[in-house]
Design a protein that fits this description.
heterodimer; A: alpha+beta; Thrombin, subunit H; 3 domains; six-stranded antiparallel beta barrel; 8 helices; 15 strands; 22% strand; B: mainly alpha; Rna Polymerase Sigma Factor, Chain: A; Arc Repressor Mutant, subunit A; 2 domains; two-stranded parallel ribbon; 73% helix; elongated
């Protein structure tokens, strides 16, 4: 430690030019032969520059404020003098401080509790990353079957189009074992989900809360980026007029509030949180870290920002850390769609680029979007 | 500073003002402020802003100008007025875009392209807030100790007396610990920001 202090002192004297010529020559030799010292000089120079700039800008800011008040009082600029509003601002600032202290305390408490909890929880084994593909329980499946059965009968009674019915009938009864979430990216029935959700799939079906299963097929799969695109092949699929959300190429910023819609259970579930880091597990640049409640079945859920723009796809959760959930950057959805578009079969594929949800409140957004989010079931 | 020969007359005066701004000279700042504030305020108020917004935008613009004259490579190829108006307009448009309003109605002011300046300013601005955050996360007496040494350039002896350390060595020790903490706070944000 005393060594370190001495080295830092030498670095500072070197940077500020306080060294004697002899010392300087000696130190420069040291810099050349010792890359660590060289790095220290570079880093410290940068840091001191940052500190100085900070100080200068802070000083300019205070001069500007004084000047503003001075000129406004003399009537040399047209700015209204601060009266009642200043007090409100003052109070607001005061409360902001109190609120931040309260938040800090709450944060510390939460942290302590989570440390306590994790210290008493038995250590789990190695798989650090958990893909959130859900297991669909047989009981639930039976429920669905019963539901399907009754609705099928209802259809029969209502004498719905014959072709749908015959199609349904000819289809073998499939037991879906695992599943995730997916969302429409093109009204023609293209759905984006995670590649791991449809891994080893024999049959795939998609379903919205309380609606019929629709069969779907994989048209694109990129295992490395964990993105798959499905197309609904079922004749019963009704094409919606348009897709309300856009896919944002530039992704999101740290601390940006986000929300998600997915199927950890057979009903759609809403969750909200924030973007916590721009990279994913172990610095993975394909994904980012978010803080949002996520469970099995959430894989493939869209991550949306406050404008209703998709900034990522939820794909995994870290077992060894509390609340670390990862999402694939939205630009890879756009890349995947572009790649698929190059194939002549999918020429008519369109990427949604404008959101009609900007400015509407969260409840309306969710109501709209949930019509475009599907449960993906895999056999 | 490289001057464009086009308009030498006002130019001399203006370059003096800018040199003053670079030195944080009160009178120069007051002159620039007085001559340009009203136009910017009109722009902001005519486009859904308040007087408070106008003050923010104008002062941010002044910092952009300050950063530019500080950098030493500043080429003044338009009047201060044109530059200030262009930057303010850009900054206000950006803020409106964040609130999802796009249209901006102008008066008949002259304009120049300032995209690079605004971008550079945003980078510096984020560095500024990182340092601000790091400093405020540091707490006392570390903050004052480092400011006294690095910013007010006071000697370790003076600092030791001022802060009540028994000798300069102890103060130096403490300064080292504080600096390491500040650096850690700063660089952890820095690495997060620039992937």
């Amino acid at each position: 430690m005393i060594e370190d202090i001495k080295i830092l002192e030498a670095v500072e004297r070197y940077i500020s030019g306080q060294m004697t010529p002899d010392e300087r020559v000696y130190f420069e030799g040291l810099r050349k032969s010792n890359p660590e010292i060289d790095q220290m000089v570079v880093e410290h120079t940068f840091f001191l520059q940052q500190m100085n700039r900070f100080d200068e800008v802070r000083k300019i800011k205070s001069t500007l404020n004084e000047t503003h008040i001075h000129l406004a009082e003399k009537g040399l600029i047209k700015s209204p003098r601060l009266r009642g509003k200043a007090k409100v601002v003052y109070l607001y600032n005061r409360y902001k401080r109190v609120a931040s202290i309260a938040a800090t305390i709450a944060g510390i408490t939460a942290l302590t509790i989570s440390i306590l909890v994790s210290s008493i929880t038995p250590a789990r084994q190695k798989t650090e990353i958990d893909y959130l593909r859900g297991e669909i329980k047989t009981i639930k499946k039976q429920n669905i079957d019963i539901k399907n059965e009754t609705s099928r009968q209802a259809m029969e009674i209502n004498n719905v189009k014959k072709d749908i019915y015959s199609d349904e009938k000819s289809r073998p009864v499939i037991t879906y074992k695992t599943g995730g979430t997916g969302f429409l990216v093109d009204v023609k029935g293209y759905i984006v989900t995670n590649a791991h959700v449809v891994e080893n799939a024999k049959n795939i079906a998609v379903q919205k809360s309380g609606e019929e299963d629709l069969s779907a097929a994989i048209v694109y799969k990129d295992i490395q980026r964990d993105i798959a695109i499905l197309k609904i092949t079922d004749k019963a699929y009704k094409t919606p007029a348009s897709i309300p959300y856009a896919i944002k190429r530039s992704g999101g910023d740290i601390a940006e509030p986000i929300y998600t819609l997915g199927y950890p259970r057979t009903d759609i579930v809403y969750g909200e949180g924030y973007l916590s880091a721009s990279t994913g597990f172990n610095g993975d640049t394909l994904s980012c870290q978010i803080t949002v409640p996520a469970n099995r079945g959430n894989s493939g859920s869209p991550i949306l920002n406050r404008n209703g723009e998709i900034i990522g796809i939820l794909n995994a959760k870290q077992n060894t850390a509390e609340g670390a959930v990862f999402a694939i950057h939205s630009k890879y959805i756009i890349d995947a769609l572009a790649e698929l578009h190059r194939d002549t079969t999918y020429r008519n594929l369109k990427t949604p680029t404008s959101s009609t949800l900007k400015g509407t409140d969260r409840m309306q957004q969710v109501k709209k979007i949930s019509n475009y989010v599907y449960m993906v079931k895999v056999d | 500073m490289v001057l464009n020969k086009g308009f030498l007359k006002t130019e001399n005066n203006e370059s003096l003002l800018l040199q003053g701004l670079a030195r944080n000279d009160k009178r120069a700042i007051e002159t620039i402020y007085k001559d340009n504030y009203n136009i910017v305020q009109a722009l902001v108020i005519n486009n859904n802003g308040t007087a408070e917004d106008a003050k923010d935008i104008f002062q941010e613009t002044m910092i952009v100008l300050y950063e530019k004259v500080q950098s030493g490579t500043f080429e003044l190829n338009c009047q201060i007025k044109t530059f200030v108006y262009s930057v303010s307009r850009r900054l206000w448009l950006k803020r409106l875009m964040l609130q999802n309003r796009f249209n901006l109605s102008d008066g008949h002011e002259e304009m120049v392209s300032v995209d690079d300046e605004v971008e550079e300013h945003e980078r510096r601005n984020s560095e500024f807030s990182m340092m601000e955050k790091a400093m405020s996360g540091l707490g006392e007496p570390c903050k004052s100790l480092l400011e006294a040494f690095y910013l007010q350039k006071r000697s370790m002896q003076e600092i030791a007396v001022g802060f009540g350390y028994t000798n300069a060595e102890n103060a130096k020790n403490q300064k080292y610990k504080c600096l390491m903490r500040l650096k850690k706070l700063f660089f952890s944000q820095y690495k997060n920001e620039s992937p």
